[in-house]
Structure formats: structure tokens, C-alpha cells
Amino acid sequence: MMEDIADLELRMVEHSIPLDVLSDLISRFIINVPESAKQNLIRICFQIELAYWYYLDFYVSNENKLRGCAFKEFAAHVFQHLPFLQPHYGRLDDILEEWRDYKQSVPTYGAILLCEGNTHVLLVQSYWAKSSWGFPKGKVNENEDPAHCAIREVYEETGFDITTYIDLENYFEAVINEQLVRLYVITGISKDTKFQPRTRYEIKACEWFPVADLPNNKKDNTPKVKMGVSPHAFFMVLPFVKRIKGLLNAGKSIKRQRHKSLSFSESESTTKTKFKQVLQRSDSNERNGKDEKKKGHSKRQLFNDDEFIFSAPSWLNFKFDKAAILECIP
Questions:
Q1: Residue 173's pLDDT is what?
Q2: What sequence ranges are listed for the domain Nudix hydrolase (predicted)?
């Protein structure tokens, strides 16, 4: 154990996070955690993970003097900096191992709520991460099926019951930071609906946002130009934005896609990003005039023996935003 601590401390000397940056990340994601939750180190690790990805995406990417680090190094900085975590620093390895085991075993389910006309999407803002917006979702309980978990979480976080709206075969699915996330697509919600979170000190606000103005990537400043909101605020939404826009831009009636489901798996690291799409269809080839059958792939299978046609995710549904371009012309 002493050797592990010495090794960790050595690596921390080699990598450092400026105090003002670390303080900003802690204030965004950890400082507002309720006192009762601070006793749950697994829960705290999830908040540290949010801060970590925010650090890589919006500090390291935009500041040449800062470099990326492993999550363990980042967590060590946080544990050393916060007084309530300092007593647990000596067993950081055990805490992170327990957290990873828990995270990989517990998926999260929720919903993407679209208004009538599918022009706006409902996002929620957490008390714990006040500067960020995301979809209403949460971890599944023991022996709870995905749909019931989504219904429960959406109701707890927005006060809206999606029981009569949910289509069990219409969802987006992604593996983000080693955790499965499934979001059921819900359409036809009135923008006049009054949303009232049912849990205290968890959700601060529920607001409609124009789908067209959400960022396609972390450097897309459309939200800043159109809504006055930093694109950084939507980093938890990014894995699903292009798929939502793709469906809407294609002019499809999402509510009628009862025999289709889309699964998108994404995992990110500081050195590489892997994308995997699995389309499960019963009549999906009808639109394209194709009738060959495509096999789904297992979690670790990247290619099969048949011909593989690759389309980079960054080019899916690509189009110019004419309005944004015209606004930049003097």
C-alpha cells in the first residue's frame, strides 16, 4: 500500500492542475453535493468523473499549457484538495475499483422529450452541476426493467408522466464512459406543460431548448450565438445530438417507428474515440431499396467477415447552417 501511495504521489508531481482550474471544477460538480451524499464515496466518484471529462474537453482542449491525465490522477488531485475526502486518500485505488464495478453493472435509463412539431427538446439542470444541462435519466433499481426506470426517473426529475407516451422499441442507446445509457424518444409534448421536479435538491430547472441550436460538437458555438449559452453546458447531451437532428432533418415521424431501434455506442479517452452503431430493423431496408440483412455486432466485435462500409460519425447528417454563416458575414 505504501508503495502504491508513493507511486501515485510521484505521478502527481509530474502532472499538476492549476489551483484556480481545480477550484472551478470542484465548484461546478462537487461543492453542491448534499452533506448526506458526501458520505457515499461511490456517488462522489460519479461527480468527479463529470468534472474530469469537463476538464479534458474544455480546459485541456482549449489551453495549450494544460495536458490530459488519467482519471486516477485527476481523482487523486480532488481527494487531496477536498477536506472531506482527504482521510480516504490512502485507499483511493480500492474506492475507484469499487466505483468502476458498480458503474459497469448499473445502467441508466431516461428519455428525450420533444415538443409538438419536434422543434424543441426538454433538458434538466442539476443542483449538483449547475452549469450543465442533460436529459432526465437515472440508474436502474434492482429488478426494475428499463422502461419502468425511464418512466420513474423522468417523473422524479420533471414531474411529467411518460407512461402513455413511451414506445419500447424507440430509443437511443450509448455506452458513455463505460456506462450504458438508454434514452426513450418521446414526442408530442406540449410546450405549455408545467414541469415540477418531485425530488428535492436534485433538479434545479427544466427548460425547452431548440434542437437546431444544440451543439454538434464541443467546439460548436451555435448555442452561444443563438441562445447566449456556452456549448460547454451541453457536454452531457453531445453523444445524442446528431442522432436527434438526423431523425428530424430526415422528416421522419419518430412516433411511428415502432419496429425500429437505434443503438449508438461511444467511449472516449484522451487519445482516441471509438464509435459503434447497431441498427436493429424489421423493415429498415425498404426506404433505401435494399433487402440485404445486417447482423448486429457484439460489444467487442468491430468487423465481421462480410464487406464493411464505414461512415465517420462526424459526417453523419452533415449540412451547412446557412443562417449561422450569413450572420458571420459583415
A1: 93
A2: 104-235
